[in-house]
Amino acid sequence: MIESQPTSLETADTVELTEFDTALLAAGDPGIVSGLASLQAQNISAWFGDHKVLDRVSLLMPAGKVTALIGPSGCGKSTFLRTLNRMHELVPSASLAGEVLLDGHDIYDASRRITQARREIGMVFQKPNPFPAMSIFDNVVAGLALTGLKVSKSDKADLVEESLLKAGLWTEVKDRLRQAGGGLSGGQQQRLCIARSLAVKPRILLMDEPCSALDPTSTRRIEQTITELSTDVTIVIVTHNMQQAQRVSDQCAFFLAEAGTPGQIVEHGPTDVMFDSPQDSRTLDYVNGRFG
Ligand SMILES: Nc1ncnc2c1ncn2[C@@H]1O[C@H](COP(=O)(O)OP(=O)(O)OP(=O)(O)O)[C@@H](O)[C@H]1O
User: Where does the ABC transporter domain start and stop, copy by copy (predicted)?
Assistant: First the structure.
């Protein structure tokens, strides 16, 4: 089959909530379900303008497991991650081919709304990005309005506690919930961002190098949080830290873009196999730090 680049992003959609979205969400959209889910990328290709950066990448990210995306700089890991919750299309020149199945349903299907994908598939970024002047409490619930979810005032307090507990931050902040999020340490801010993502009850959590701006102690605390979360939410994490991939992930996918070609997955499999006895010598060289 010859693959052609889409002339425009057929997935182009508005990020703003329409009245229709808000009404459906408030009414309890039957299309939005909760609970553990798998994510399956099928033949994902991605472009920025004419520059093809991913070539027919397929990967199953099983429910309740942590999948680590590893590989040298520029091989398309972050781009791939951003195709998994429809963030790639926010770049004006971006285009995409392929499917991303959330529990078997394509998130790019024309009948599905972009807000639904964003609610079910949350994301935590490299640099902690809480709203600095906003209170810790308000930071946690900030995502509710953006995804159109309505929660009563009394339920909000429970949701804040539950989300901070899951993110491993509750005991450190429970007595200062009304203080500004910007007053927390970098590691605490990142756990606050995790709590904010968890408050909308995502089924998948995407994490793009979530510890790269943190010290070793904060990094270990986030890794512990990732391990605890994986019973509730399927996690996909991009990391350059091979020890971290070994510590937190159940399976790894090794990406490579050789000699200017678009990124592809060289191989993927259980983390211990990928580190101890991978099939491809390039994987062995990479995980042993011989390049990248
Ligand atoms: N917004 C953008 N516009 C144009 N090109 C981009 C954009 N973002 C990424 N690219 C290009 O896409 C390719 C893949 O980049 P990407 O950030 O996905 O790789 P990566 O493996 O995540 O790299 P790193 O590990 O350094 O973060 C690179 O060639 C990069 O220059």
Answer: 39-287
* Architecture label for domain 38-287: 3-Layer(aba) Sandwich (3.40)
pLDDT digits (tens, 9 = 90+) for 238-251: 999 999 999 999 99
The C-alpha atoms of residue 193 and residue 185 are separated, in whole angstroms, by 12
Q: Tell me the pTM.
A: 0.88
**What value of ipTM does the predicted structure carry?**
0.98
Q: Where are the domains of the chain?
A: 38-287
Q: How far is ligand 1, taken at its centre, from the CA of residue 73, in Å? A: 8
Pocket lining: 73 vs ligand 1, CB cutoff 6 Å: yes
Record the tokens describing residue 46, joined without a space: 């991605």
Name the DSSP letter for residue 180: B
Test site for ligand 1: of 50, 57, 70, 78, most ligand atoms within 8 A of the Cβ: 78
* Residue 97, strand partner residues: 45
- Residue closest via CA to ligand 1's atom 9 equals 79
- How far is 7 from 224, CA to CA, in rounded Å? 44
Average pLDDT, the chain: 88
